[in-house]
Design a protein that fits this description.
heterodimer; A: about 250 residues; mainly alpha; globular; B: about 220 residues; about 0% strand
Chain lengths: ~250, ~220
């Protein structure tokens, strides 16, 4: 696998790969996210207890799950970058950071909107909510540290260390439900043997989770492309590429 | 080699004790923060007992942030940090030493001062014992983890609040466990589990943080 992966340490190879992958991710994302959301919001039966407000699950749960996995992905990229000294890995990491931060924000916001009618409060100092807020701080820390350095190579390494330190926080988030047994309802679909959710409610949720995953992947690829172009401006292949693009535009 | 390490230790301690004003500043800050709370929420002993452990811990963390600047900044500015990195001593040893010195200078006085703070906030004896133990285990963690953030930001000119943003996510779990230990003590329950978790975090940080800080210093020296 390493042999297959290694060429992508070069920025040009990474650029063309992510350029090729972007339409696939974007296409699958639209195919899954649009029907999944419509199905979930319009056609699934209402919950017997929570009524229609349970439907926020189709946005909230994917965003919350993926906010954490995006952070782990960032940490993996940072580790790869630090161990093998790949610049592209740091670029990928920093491409993911704002996307993950927005996912975290969406999870917090939808959670608050759901919490008001259900718990009677916008915000509750429950373990899971707090951990999600800490996760938002972590994302902000990584982004702020990256932007504080002028030398972006140095910035990538520094932000990478920060991401790795923060990954300690992910298990705390995950097991917090068991540790502080509080207000937030338990996980619904991670119990593998028998999910405590009806099948017709489950399918759109799974579609949305997969669709959101593709959404994050597509955004990351686009941001990675921009990052590579911005950082490698002085390289001949970038100027050739930009030149070609400009000529095409002129031709049109 | 060990002579060099001893030299570093002596030098850092000497510098710290030469600047007596700076040494006292965090303590004064701590004392003032803790004094402001009873004035703000009222002097009722029950209320103070209820919020006391949290106040002391928050004040300790803020104090740590205040004193953390000293860890590498001066050495970085006068160039001695670079010399130390070039000296051939493993960087993680230097970093570990500097964390130890920071703990001695910043947190040991806090521990000595803690009975007074407990008195101010009407903590009962078992509560104070739990608080003291949690501070004893938790404050070295603050020094070790803080060193990472300071190492990362030592070369950064702008953004004085950056270390705060970097450290707080790591400190929050510590705060949760420490205050819940004191709460258990207030209810006469066993608080060994919380202390065990803080101890585990400390050991983890002890094993990993000096290496992370060493790498961070190398990156920001660049």
């Amino acid at each position: 696998m390493f042999k297959w992966l290694h060429p992508y340490a070069k920025t040009q190879a990474a650029y063309s790969l992510s350029q090729r992958l972007t339409p696939w991710f974007a296409g699958i994302c639209v195919l899954l996210l649009v029907p999944g959301t419509l199905w979930g919001l319009l056609f699934t039966p209402a919950d017997y207890q929570q009524g229609d407000s349970f439907r926020i699950i189709y946005i909230h749960v994917p965003a919350a799950m993926l906010s954490m996995s995006t952070y782990v992905a960032m940490a993996v990229a940072a580790l790869v970058g630090i161990v093998w000294q790949w610049r592209t890995a740091f670029m990928a990491m920093i491409a993911m950071a704002p996307v993950g931060a927005v996912m975290t924000f969406i999870a917090l916001f939808t959670g608050a909107a759901w919490g008001k009618p259900m718990w009677g409060a916008w915000w509750v100092w429950d373990a899971r909510l707090t951990s999600e807020l800490i996760l938002l701080f972590l994302y902000c820390g990584v982004i702020a540290l990256y932007s504080a350095f002028d030398d972006k190579q140095q910035a990538g390494k520094a932000a990478g260390i920060m991401a790795l330190v923060g990954v300690v926080n992910i298990p705390v988030i995950h097991f917090s439900v068991q540790w502080w047994n509080t207000l937030h309802q338990g996980a619904t679909i991670t119990k593998f043997d028998k999910p405590s959710i009806a099948t017709e409610m489950l399918w759109p949720l799974l579609m949305n989770i997969a669709g959101m995953m593709m959404f994050i992947a597509a955004l990351t690829c686009m941001r990675l492309n921009n990052e590579i172009l911005r950082r490698e401006q002085h390289r001949p292949w970038v100027s050739a590429l930009l030149h070609d693009r400009r000529e095409n535009q002129n031709a049109v | 080699m060990s002579q060099l390490i001893k030299g570093v230790l002596q030098r850092d301690l000497a510098i710290a004790f030469n600047q007596k004003g700076e040494l006292a500043q965090p303590l004064l800050f701590l004392l003032i923060v803790v004094t402001l709370f009873p004035i703000a929420v009222g002097p009722a002993p029950e209320t103070l007992q209820r919020i006391g452990p949290g106040v002391i811990w928050v004040a300790a963390i803020l104090t740590a942030l205040l004193g953390m600047e000293r860890l590498f900044k001066q050495d970085y500015l006068d160039g001695s940090l670079e010399q130390l990195l070039l000296s051939g001593v493993p960087v993680f040893q230097i970093v570990a030493l500097k964390s130890v010195v920071h703990w001695l200078v910043c947190f040991l006085p806090l521990l000595i001062l803690s009975p007074l703070l407990a008195l101010f906030l009407h903590l009962s004896m078992p509560m104070y014992l739990a608080l003291f133990l949690s501070l004893l285990l938790g404050t070295p963690l603050l020094s070790l983890v803080g060193a990472i953030a300071m190492g990362l930001t030592v070369g950064v000119q702008k953004g004085a609040l950056l270390p705060l943003l970097l450290m707080v996510p790591v400190f929050i779990p510590l705060l949760i466990f420490a205050t819940s230990a004191v709460e258990s003590a207030a209810l006469h329950l066993s608080y060994a589990p919380q202390l065990a978790i803080i101890g585990a975090m400390l050991l983890c940080a002890l094993a990993l943080a000096p290496f992370a800080t060493a790498y961070a210093l190398k990156v920001s020296q660049h």
